[in-house]
Specification:
The complex is a heterodimer of chains A (about 500) and B (about 500). Chain A has about 500 residues and is mostly helical. Chain A has one domain. Chain A is about 75% helix and about 5% strand. Chain A has a two-stranded antiparallel sheet with strand order 1-2. In chain A, strands 3-4 form a two-stranded antiparallel sheet. The radius of gyration of chain A is 22 Å and the shape is globular. Chain A starts with a helix and ends with a helix. With about 500 residues, chain B is mainly α. A two-stranded antiparallel ribbon of chain B has the order 1-2. The chains are: A mainly alpha (about 500), B mainly alpha (about 500). Chains A and B meet through helix 1, helix 5, helix 6 and helix 7 of A and helix 16, helix 17, helix 18 and helix 20 of B.
Chain lengths: ~500, ~500
């Protein structure tokens, strides 16, 4: 059943593309075909979310469920294996939520609407595919399918330096996936089992010496997309350049693709790559230490840089780097609680970052046409856009990890896990949280609650802000509701995540 | 050798020659006064019929044509038959894209030369003897020079043809020089006999002359596949030649030349005495590297050096191009580099041969499509500059979508066929060669395909992202569009179901 999330999305992408070919944009027609494209995309996204919810409800607590498993390329032993365990289910759910919210917040895309949604749905289909693949080759195929639509979404519909941001993002992604591809080829050749199934590879008894170099190769390859410092630089520029829905998806689900790959493939297939080297260099004794340090640096660095931004969207962009650091840190703690927290943080950050980008990019920027704090400070948005202000208060609270929101549960678990592994990781990461409060507060104050006198030219256009539309309200409600529900009752996701993490820790992908 | 054998084995070639004559007769005798469109259509039609007939009768001609000494001159069936069918199919596609051609009034001659050239390609694919190889190469090459020069009013076309011809003549000289050494060293012109003799000779030392011979042969064949440093003709030819001729050079000629390299590699492997065409090696048999290629040592090293140089130069030079045809030319150099890697680590089983054939077949298919799109855009805008592709998605959405598929496939993005071809090839390399060297080379190849995405995106960016000065629709002949869409669908379907083509190629290895 969950497999239909993939097929529906790709079918939707194809239909959207055909709308353009069948109904050429005649002056009178364009309005109608745009509306059709929107509703079609929304229907597909909602169907995907419904399937995701149903699959989640049906699959939680049943371990790993194989959905499809048929030979694909028989001569090389490659199979078309779709399966889902608790981790996949949570991330499919996240993708469904982000997809619906993304469509809602792109309701005002008027240019080449059908193409926009064609690329959008192709991206979503690829993301669903990655989360459901249990074959390394298949996972890689879906992973790469997701790259190209990102490029076009940003380059065509983006804003600030969009072609630069899009190309940078595409090349970073492609370099990362090239590293993963090398790892895939090497694992396939080394295992000699003539299978690329993740479970088969994990059981192939790959030599420890091989895992020692394959693990960092694949981990870094995926972690580029997860925004690991110092390879994160595509993230802020890409996020800022992207149109709202694309930045929501980038932060919401695409960065999770990277983190998911780190977890499912790098850690799942090459677990011995995390073993101690047997010697210590600068206090680092294993790849685990190396990546933990990079993650911790990312947390603090992202937060500090976010504090210094003058562009509202850059603040959110860098905060994503910081929050994704928690995911990576949680993964390399290799503790039950830390890894559970990491998966929960993927969900939590996906929802919260989506909400923040929606507020900045759609609700505020599309009305004020500026994201500079220096100009926003004079606009008194808390009075003129109270909905945006309060939505940002909620999202900001969730983002800094206030109890009652999903971020709190997730980051707390990661920090506990890190404390069990190495206490000083927790201490440094804790600094990142404090700075996180500071930059969120600063953004909130400067963008919405500033009491500076309105500038003259802005005052003249005081009436010009469009009213809030229903898709925006629905989108905020969906994303805000999700973080709140998970924050108040984390069990709903933890019941799915914990057994999956437990079996992963107990002996790879069994 | 008797004439019955000769006729049987060269049946497809004969059919192509007959088709060429029919095309000429119909065009010159009956349609002399007719409209250009009708002449083009009829020539292309008869050409395609000829290709189809040749492919249809191909299985009848499976077997060996032996020389007076009892050694094979031509050996059809197996890998050769597979390459031959591919050559015929790709020639047919090139012909189908010929409709509404404007560069010449003598379409009949053009088609006839193309068919004769294709016949040369068929001979190369099956040749087992140095002299037959050389005849096939010359038959193919002479046709290509003429095709390149066919746009008589274009100075670029003439320049390209002269360059191509001079380089070709020089490389033919190198090749002959190398062949003469091989004959002198081994006393035979048969590939397998040569491999055998040179293996034993070099085993006991004294292989210096053999090295010279192999370098010369590599230079001659490197020219045909445009491997660095013998690639200098490629950009000019791709740019100057009429589009159908360029597509033909880029696809059919490549397939034929790589089929020849497969024959060479296979012959070398016969030496070890274990290998027979059609023998399906099971997965458990350890792969033996052909590194001691009968011709001991230097051959794989030569191919590996050519491969690395081609990957680096091709990809980096493509980054700097502003003409799409030159870009495709340099990318062709890079692709030749990837394939050479598969040939350098040539497998004991049919694994490598299959992977190489798969790669080059799908590459030829995709490139023909790419040239088809370039030709349409060129006709509408008068140039193949990247900026001619500006806002193509508005001017002809289908054409833009088709171009997207072709270029992403060339860049190796799944689920398109180019990705699977690369994966398959690199997996074969790693299966054959153990150790850090093949691994490093594969890593280099994968890294450079990441680079290649950049220049393909440069074209797609203009087609989809950047606004253009002119947004009037571009119209293409319905036949052209149908062929292009067909190729694009094939690229997608073969990419989603790689086994379709893979199993088809594998089936030729049990024909014996």
């Amino acid at each position: 059943m969950l497999a239909w999330t993939i097929y529906l999305s790709f079918a939707g992408a194809l239909l959207e593309a055909l709308i353009g070919a069948v109904l050429p944009a005649r002056p009178g027609e364009s309005q109608r075909s745009a509306a059709m494209a929107r509703w079609l995309a929304l229907a597909i996204a909602i169907a995907g979310l419904a399937l995701g919810i149903a699959g989640f409800a049906a699959g939680t607590g049943h371990g790993r469920i194989t959905i499809v498993d048929v030979p694909w390329i028989a001569s090389m032993g490659i199979r078309y294996t779709l399966a889902a365990d608790g981790i996949s289910l949570v991330l499919v759910l996240l993708t469904g939520i982000a997809a619906v919210a993304g469509v809602l917040f792109s309701w005002n895309v008027e240019v080449r609407t059908n193409q926009f949604f064609a690329f959008y749905l192709a991206l979503i289909g690829g993301v669903y595919g990655v989360f459901l693949s249990f074959d390394f080759f298949l996972l890689f195929v879906f992973y790469e399918i997701a790259i190209v639509p990102k490029y076009f979404l940003i380059a065509i519909w983006g804003s600030t330096r969009r072609e630069y941001g899009a190309m940078k993002l595409a090349l970073y992604s492609f370099v990362g996936s090239a590293m993963v591809l090398i790892g895939l080829l090497a694992a396939y050749a080394t295992a000699g089992s003539h299978s690329t199934g993740l479970v088969d590879l994990a059981h192939a008894g790959l030599p420890v010496s091989f895992q020692m170099w394959a693990f960092p190769l694949v981990f870094i390859g995926f972690a580029i997309l997860a925004g690991m410092w110092p390879l994160h630089t595509w993230a802020p520029t890409g996020h800022v350049a992207a149109p709202t829905a694309a930045s929501m998806l980038l932060a919401g689900v695409v960065m999770k693709l990277g983190a998911y790959g780190c977890l499912r493939v790098a850690i799942g297939v090459f677990p011995h790559g995390l073993d101690p080297w047997g010697f210590s260099f600068l206090g680092l004794g294993s790849w685990r230490d190396v990546f933990a340090v990079l993650a911790v640096v990312g947390i603090v660095y992202g937060a500090l840089v976010a504090l210094a931004q003058t562009d509202f969207k850059f603040v959110i962009g860098y905060s994503s780097v910081s929050h994704m650091g928690f995911v990576l840190l949680g993964l390399v703690t290799l503790t039950q609680i830390g890894m559970t927290g990491a998966v929960l943080q993927m969900f939590s950050h996906g929802v919260i970052a989506g909400l923040l980008f929606a507020i900045v990019g759609r609700i505020v920027y599309d009305r004020t046409h500026t994201r500079q704090f220096a100009e926003l400070e004079h606009m008194h948005l808390s009075r003129r856009l109270p909905f945006a202000a309060w939505a940002f208060v909620i999202a900001g609270m969730a983002s800094i990890g206030l109890p009652g929101f999903s971020g709190f549960v997730a980051e707390l678990q990661v920090l506990i896990g890190a404390w069990i592994a190495r206490p000083w990781w927790t201490i440094v990461a804790g600094v990142g949280i404090v700075v996180g409060v500071a930059y969120t507060w600063r953004a909130l104050q400067k963008a919405f609650f500033s009491d500076l006198a309105p500038a003259q030219h802005i005052h003249d256009h005081a009436h010009a802000l469009d009213p809030i539309t229903w898709p925006e309200i629905a989108g905020v409600a969906l994303l805000g509701g999700a973080t709140l529900v998970v924050g108040l009752y984390p069990r709903v996701l933890l019941d799915a995540i914990e057994p999956a993490v437990k079996s992963l820790l107990a002996g790879g992908l069994q | 050798m008797n004439y019955a054998d000769l006729f049987r084995v060269t049946l497809p070639e004969t059919i192509l020659e007959i088709a060429a004559v029919v095309v000429l007769i119909v065009d010159l005798a009956f349609l002399r006064k007719s409209a250009q469109q009708l002449r083009t259509t009829s020539a292309a039609f008869f050409g395609i019929i000829g290709c189809a007939a040749a492919a249809w009768y191909l299985p009848l001609g499976v077997g060996n044509l032996n020389g007076p000494d009892g050694l094979a001159l031509l050996s059809t069936g197996g890998a050769a038959a597979c390459a031959q069918i591919a050559i015929l199919a790709l020639t047919g596609l090139c012909l189908a894209l010929l409709v509404e051609t404007l560069f010449t009034r003598h379409v009949g001659e053009f088609v006839a030369v193309m068919l004769m050239s294709a016949a040369g390609g068929l001979i190369i694919a099956a040749a087992q003897d140095l002299i037959v190889i050389f005849i096939g190469l010359e038959l193919l090459s002479l046709g290509l020079y003429i095709l390149t020069a066919f746009a008589k009013k274009s100075a670029k076309s003439a320049e390209a043809a002269i360059k191509y011809y001079l380089f070709g003549a020089m490389s033919a000289a190198f090749l002959l020089f190398g062949f003469s050494y091989l004959y002198g060293l081994t006393g035979s012109t048969n590939l397998q006999r040569i491999a055998q003799h040179s293996y034993f000779q070099s085993y006991f030392g004294a292989a210096a002359l053999l090295d010279v011979a192999l370098v010369m042969v590599a230079a001659g064949l490197g020219f045909k596949i445009a491997a660095v440093p013998f690639q200098l003709w490629a950009p000019d030819t791709y740019e100057g030649a009429p589009a159908p001729a360029a597509a033909f050079v880029a696809s059919v000629s490549k397939v034929a030349s790589f089929a020849l390299l497969i024959s060479v590699g296979t012959a070398a492997l016969h030496v070890s005495g274990h290998y027979a065409i059609g023998q399906q090696i099971t997965a458990d048999v350890p792969e033996v590297s052909a590194r001691h290629f009968g011709m001991n040592g230097p051959w794989w090293l030569l191919l590996a050096v050519l491969s690395v140089a081609s990957m680096i130069v091709g990809n980096l030079a493509a980054l700097a191009q502003s003409s799409v045809r030159r870009l495709v030319a340099y990318s062709a150099v890079a692709h030749a580099g990837y394939v050479l890697l598969g040939l350098a680590f040539f497998s004991y089983s049919a694994l490598s041969a299959r992977a190489v054939l798969y790669y080059i077949l799908t590459y030829g298919l995709t490139t023909i499509g790419a040239f088809g799109v370039v030709a349409v855009v060129e006709r509408a805008t008068g140039s193949d500059r990247m900026d001619s592709f500006l806002s193509l998605h508005k001017r002809n959405p289908v054409l833009a979508a088709v171009l997207l598929v072709f270029f992403l496939s060339l860049a190796g993005i799944p689920p398109l066929v180019g990705f699977w071809a690369k994966f398959n090839l690199f997996a074969a390399v790693l299966a054959v060669g153990a150790g850090p060297v093949p691994f490093a080379l594969v890593a280099l190849a994968v890294a450079f395909s990441a680079v290649s995405l950049y220049y393909y995106l440069q074209v797609l960016k203009r087609a989809y992202v950047m606004p253009g000065p002119d947004e009037s629709p571009i119209r293409a002949h319905p036949v052209t569009m149908i062929v292009l869409v067909f190729i694009a669908v094939a690229v997608v379907v073969l990419g989603c179901f790689p086994s379709l083509l893979g199993d088809w190629i594998a089936s030729f290895y049990s024909l014996g």
